[in-house]
Specification:
Largest interface: A-B, 35 and 35 residues
Number of helices of chain A: 7
Oligomer: homodimer
CATH architecture of chain A: Alpha-Beta Complex
Number of strands of chain A: 9
Largest sheet of chain A: 7 strands, mixed
Number of domains of chain A: 1
Strand content of chain A: 15-25%
Strand order of the largest sheet of chain A: 3-2-1-4-6-5-7
Order of helices and strands of chain A: EHEEHEHEEHEHHHEE
Chain lengths: 203, 203
């Protein structure tokens, strides 16, 4: 099965702008991508990267400027619906969370992200298509069922934790020792604990 | 093994004050507790509730005004470290996430919460103790290892999703059809999707 990791290569992770410059956001994106590729390979997959602009990584890269929906839906068409897609901003991924994504015996396996996104899916059905806008995991459940596909969801915190906002950076420092965590530590980020959830501060 | 669900009965969930009145926070807390108790029973456990003030629920309740650390550490002492603790604000819990908490063959099994908390643990070691302040999951890893206990962590989004802040309410509407989700829907809460993570609005 083809496994594609889409990544934004041009101006990625704009919601991290309050804490990272444009160059830093590109570097951090590549560090997160490296973690995702390492996890996928550890689970014996051969990921391909599709980026909107060139990115530096240890996998075959295709540059494709289309939006995510057109890109993934064309790939679903080309592969007759035998496709896995894993987002590039999941630096908490490890071998076992990847294995769990491929475990359920269902036509469509969804990995929900925090806030209603779809951080990864495995498709084994010709008629499933994606729509990443809004509460996409809800829409993907619906699209899959309308297509007559069986659906399973993976209950994984590591697959759910996409890094979009400054507060998400704490999850990387708390739960990873990969490239993205190293990059943050080298950049002076530290955990800041008070009464609520832990956040980060930059030295 | 004793399984205790601690819950704040007096002025719970103050971080939800921007969207819920004091009475509503108490009602919503009881709805979340009902979901947690249902999930624990579905996995064949017999939970006990320990509340800082009387709460209405379908389980034996002990009222104990002590703080969480003293309470849980005394219970760990009384039970010679054979104890499970599951927080009351995890309305996404289901039977399978509870089963996964008890699965690992380790002296201490931790279920990290978003933002560094410890949403549940299973202890089978006499010397483990808790310290819930700050990034508690990091401290609990450390305390367990210092005690010579083996440690495992459960990778579960459902166990990780404690409901503390208004934005967390979206997770309940997205991923549950239990008592807490019903309570929110009856209270007029709906999902609001725009470009980032899904949030809620009240009709």
């Amino acid at each position: 099965m083809r496994l594609v990791v889409p990544v934004s290569g041009s101006d990625p992770k704009t919601r991290l702008s309050p804490v990272l410059t444009s160059d830093e956001r590109r570097d951090f994106t590549e560090a997160m991508l490296a973690d995702v590729l390492t996890a996928l390979r550890a689970a014996d997959h051969s990921p391909e990267v599709v980026a909107t602009a060139p990115v530096d990584c240890d996998a075959p890269v295709t540059v494709d400027e289309r939006g995510l929906d057109s890109l993934v839906n064309d790939l679903l068409g080309e592969t007759d619906g035998e496709l896995a897609v894993v987002m590039a901003d999941l630096p908490l991924l490890g071998r076992s969370s990847v294995e769990r994504l491929f475990e359920p015996d269902a036509d469509v396996v969804l990995a929900p992200g925090l806030g209603g996104g779809t951080n990864a899916f495995v498709c084994r059905h010709p008629d499933f298509r994606v729509d990443y806008h809004g509460a996409s995991v809800r829409d993907h459940r619906h699209i899959a069922r309308e297509a007559g596909a069986t659906v399973a969801e993976v209950d994984s915190r590591r697959l759910a934790t996409d890094i979009d906002e400054p507060s998400d950076l704490a999850e990387v420092l708390l739960h990873s020792d990969g490239a993205a965590a190293d990059w943050l530590r080298d950049g002076g980020f530290e955990l800041l604990a008070d009464d609520g959830r832990v956040t980060v501060e930059r030295a």
